[in-house]
């Protein structure tokens, strides 16, 4: 499906520019300052999940981050953002990638624990990336989605010192104890890992 593409707001462009100039360690702690929020990934749009849907943390100080977990939403991009903003849903991921153009939303800070893996140990040690689409509809896995997601994953791996390999970049279906199948048989891992390593 195609949806209207909104240009980035001037406010977001200004925030992104300011963020790029400030060393990460010098950014204010958002938990201390309520509404101070900006994406960890400069190209992502900040679309915060409801605070009832994730756990505030101070990673990597309190939990080492050593995995990236790849998901497919089984819902549209907009519906996924709505679900994450609904305090009754008890689910979130750090990022959502839009199918049509690879646009990135960040919904949970990388320092915080998102609820995406269905497994507390894996939630505490991972960054979760949702991709708009359905496991049985490979047309959603566009070039733009693969390319932007791979850039994001490469940047996450660099930020957290995570090896860019399949032992550390895993599918939801590889989380111990899960009954989820995403990203499913049409997700092209060979292509994705090549893009991550050459991003
Ligand atoms: Zn999943």
UniProtKB/TrEMBL annotation:
Its EC number is 3.5.1.28. One of its GO terms (biological process) is cell wall organization. Residues 54-184 form the N-acetylmuramoyl-L-alanine amidase domain. InterPro entries: Amidase/PGRP_sf, Amidase_domain, NAMLAA_amidase_2, TAT_signal. Keywords: Cell wall biogenesis/degradation, Hydrolase. GO terms for molecular function: N-acetylmuramoyl-L-alanine amidase activity. It comes from the Bacteria. CDD domains: PGRP. It catalyses: Hydrolyzes the link between N-acetylmuramoyl residues and L-amino acid residues in certain cell-wall glycopeptides. Gene3D superfamilies: Peptidoglycan recognition protein-like. This is N-acetylmuramoyl-L-alanine amidase. Signal peptide: none annotated.
């Amino acid at each position: 499906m195609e949806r209207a593409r909104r240009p980035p707001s001037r406010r977001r462009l200004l925030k992104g520019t300011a963020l790029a100039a400030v060393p990460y360690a010098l950014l204010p702690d958002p938990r201390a300052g309520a509404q101070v929020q900006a994406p960890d990934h400069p190209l992502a749009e900040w679309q915060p999940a409801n605070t009832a849907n994730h756990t505030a943390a101070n990673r990597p100080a309190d939990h080492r981050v050593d995995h990236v977990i790849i998901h497919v939403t089984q819902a549209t991009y907009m519906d996924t953002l709505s679900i994450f903003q609904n305090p009754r849903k008890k689910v979130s991921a750090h990022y959502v990638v839009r199918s049509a153009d690879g646009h990135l939303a960040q919904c949970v800070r990388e320092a915080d624990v998102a609820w995406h893996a269905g497994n507390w140990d894996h939630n505490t040690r991972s960054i979760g990336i949702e991709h708009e689409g359905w496991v049985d509809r490979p047309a959603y896995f566009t070039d733009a989605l693969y390319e932007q997601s791979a850039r994001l994953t490469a940047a996450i791996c660099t930020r957290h010192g995570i090896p860019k390999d399949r032992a550390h970049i895993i599918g939801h279906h590889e989380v111990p104890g899960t009954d989820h199948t995403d990203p499913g048989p049409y997700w092209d891992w060979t292509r994705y890992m090549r893009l991550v390593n050459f991003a």
